[in-house]
Specification:
Shape: elongated
Number of domains: 2
Oligomer: single chain
Strand content: 15-25%
Helix content: 40-55%
CATH topology of the largest domain: PH-domain like
Number of helices: 4
Radius of gyration: 20 Å
CATH class of the largest domain: Mainly Beta
CATH superfamily of the largest domain: Pleckstrin-homology domain (PH domain)/Phosphotyrosine-binding domain (PTB)
Largest sheet: 4 strands, antiparallel
Strand order of the largest sheet: 1-2-3-4
């Protein structure tokens, strides 16, 4: 069976949100630096300065990653990431179709992780590169179940649903 989806364009805000959260998860250890800086300042009796520096560094870290992903959505060279594509999904591959004749093939072994959310499948190709399939691009409930079955058979999906 081949599932042919409707054409879909990922919303840049969804891309920013998912990528931003992934970056914070990937570099979780960075969050130990502001408390360490605070403790160093505290050792010298400068708790106010330590608190201020820790808050500013945390804010700059968050701002850095947000700007990285938001800027990517606005950059001219990343425009193809946010074009409309239709997808042909079967058990061997996923085809990203620009139109009826032109497309790009993605083999299932290129997928590193899959998340099932309340309203979509997220198939990760890398930490910040992913395919986002909201359920409304599928034509029927059976197509969603078929795609979920393929994902489970490939060993990518467990039973938990993320929000």
């Amino acid at each position: 069976m081949i599932v042919k989806t409707k054409k879909y364009k990922i919303d840049p805000d969804i891309y920013v949100k998912i990528s931003f959260v992934n970056a914070l998860k990937e570099w979780w250890w960075v969050w130990f630096i502001p408390p360490a800086i605070f403790l160093i300042f505290l050792a010298f009796g400068l708790w106010g300065w330590g608190l201020g520096v820790s808050i500013v560094l945390s804010g700059l870290y968050l701002l850095f990653w947000y700007i990285q992903f938001k800027g990517l959505t606005m950059h001219e060279k990343s425009k193809p990431l946010f074009d409309k594509y239709a997808y042909d999904i079967n058990s061997q591959r996923i085809m990203m179709m620009v139109d009826a004749k032109r497309g790009s093939e993605i083999k299932w072994d290129k997928i590193i992780k899959v998340e099932k959310r309340e309203d979509a499948f997220v198939l990760y190709l890398s930490k910040f590169e992913f395919l986002y399939f909201p359920f409304n691009i599928f034509k029927s409930e059976n197509e969603i179940k078929f795609v979920e079955t393929v994902i489970r058979r490939k060993g990518y999906l467990n039973t938990e649903i993320k929000k």
